[in-house]
Amino acid sequence: xxxxEVYYSDMCGLCHVAxxxxxxxxxxxxxxxxxWDATTGNWEDSAESxxxxxxxxxxxxxxxQFFIGDRWVSGWRELEPMxxxxxxxxxxxx
Length: 94
What we know:
Structural class: alpha+beta
Number of helices: 4
Largest sheet: 4 strands, mixed
Radius of gyration: 13 Å
CATH architecture: 3-Layer(aba) Sandwich
Helix content: 40-55%
CATH class: Alpha Beta
Number of domains: 1
Distance between the termini: 7 Å
Shape: globular
Low-confidence stretches: none
Strand order of the largest sheet: 2-1-5-6
CATH superfamily: Glutaredoxin
CATH topology: Glutaredoxin
């Protein structure tokens, strides 16, 4: 099965919805926790945030962010329609 990565934050409800979906559907994934710094209004500098920004080629303002293989899926609002249409299942089989 293709590798799935989830970048999430504890404060993000949709992150937990997404990870619950993956877990309930027996889709293995690696997860990387980001922490929000309310004083700066940015993600804290960490290995995880640098890895995400490098993979995306830019800073991201929200989580969850997903990588399904090499495909970047930006947020639950992009992933959910992929689930409903069967596109996620097709990607996972590649």
